[in-house]
Amino acid sequence: MRVDAGLAKLLGLSRTVIASIADADDVLVDGRVVGKSDRLTAGSMLEITLPAPPQPVTVQAIPVEGLKIIHEDDDIIVVDKPVGVAVHPSPGWTGPTVVGGLLAGGHRVATSGAAERQGVVHRLDVGTTGVMVVAKSESAYSALKHAFKERTVDKVYHAIVQGHPDPIKGTIDAPIDRHPKHDYKFAVMQDGKPSITHYEVIEAFRAASFVEVHLETGRTHQIRVHFSALHHPCVGDLTYGADPTLAKRLGVTRQWLHARQLGFHHPADGQWVSYTAEYPDDLAISLEKLREEG
User: Fold this and answer.
1) Predicted pLDDT at 235
2) Which of these, 176, 170, 182, lies nearest to 211 by C-alpha position?
3) Pairing relation of β-strands 176-178 and 186-188?
4) Which stretches within 50-117 are classed as H helix?
5) How far apart, in Å, are the Cα atoms of 128 and each of 74, 208, 290?
6) pLDDT, position 54
7) pTM > 0.85
8) Is the terminal CB of the chain with fewer CB neighbours within 10 Å at N or C?
9) For the chain, which ranges sit under pLDDT 70?
10) How far is Cα of residue 190 from the mean position of the Cα atoms in its chain?
11) What are the residues facing 57 on neighbouring strands?
């Protein structure tokens, strides 16, 4: 195998990270410096110098414009996340975060979890809007983490995808892993993590379809990757092959994907609760344009 591919599997790091290590002359085979595209052979002695670990990311309490509180009690806080906001801080991200916005608003967040992800039990992409829940109490954090892991949470998304999926109601069962060539993307991969998406076309237009999606699993970029694999990418999702001309015509500058509804057993009393987030203006306007076009 190539050095980048082989070491990525061996160390569990991305090929991009391995390539940067190799570019720094920090990969040796039998005492000889090798490049990322050189070949590994069985029985060789590998020496790898790993870079220093990144500095810990801290949460900054900064107000977030457009972050709406749908529901709050002693255990949970349910929010409507606006576009362009990450759920929590991460290396390289300097923009606003849900956690930082909640802290800036004086809301208490559970201290369980990694320092930069305290209270976070699930995530939405930066470019995806909609409903999500954050734990306030430690007991709620544990209960909700368990619920998401055991898939007892009802996650409903609305999306507009290009073309017309056939059949109009179905299940996409295809494993997902990080893209082998582009570190920022994911793809359907034979040895990826099990990923299951249920969908139904609600409305069909000439160039696109309005679909309701129920997630059984919650992989990163799952809906975007699955519909792209079917050759029906989310409208506006240029990262996963969407038509820029259609996106421009509809005035969409990001993927048309919205976390519409979230249901779960409340961690305090076990009662089933469900919360809904309305479409933001950019998605609502583009949907109306499609309806006008027929």
Assistant:
1) 98
2) 170
3) antiparallel
4) 98-104
5) 27, 19, 20
6) 66
7) no
8) C
9) 54-57, 294
10) 20
11) none
Q: Provide the terminal-to-terminal Cα distance of the chain, rounded to the nearest Å.
A: 52
Strand (E) positions, 150-271? 154-162, 169-173, 176-178, 186-188, 196-204, 208-215, 257-265
Specify whether the backbone of 247 is left (phi greater than 0), alpha (psi in -120 to 50) or beta: alpha
In the annotation, is 23 catalytic? no
Element (H, E) at 8: helix 3-11
**Which residue out of 125, 269, 281, 282 is catalytically annotated?**
125
285 CB contacts (<8 Å, ≥6 apart)? Answer: 251
Q: Say what the pLDDT of residue 56 is.
A: 67
286, with CB counted inside 10 A (0-12, 13-18, 19+), is buried
Instruction: For residue 179, give both structure tokens.
Output: 């893209």
Could you give the maximum distance between any two Cα atoms of the chain, in Å? 67
**Omega prior to 167 cis, within 30 of 0:** yes
* Three-state DSSP class for residue 53: coil
Determine phi and psi for 72, rounding to 5 degrees: -150, 135
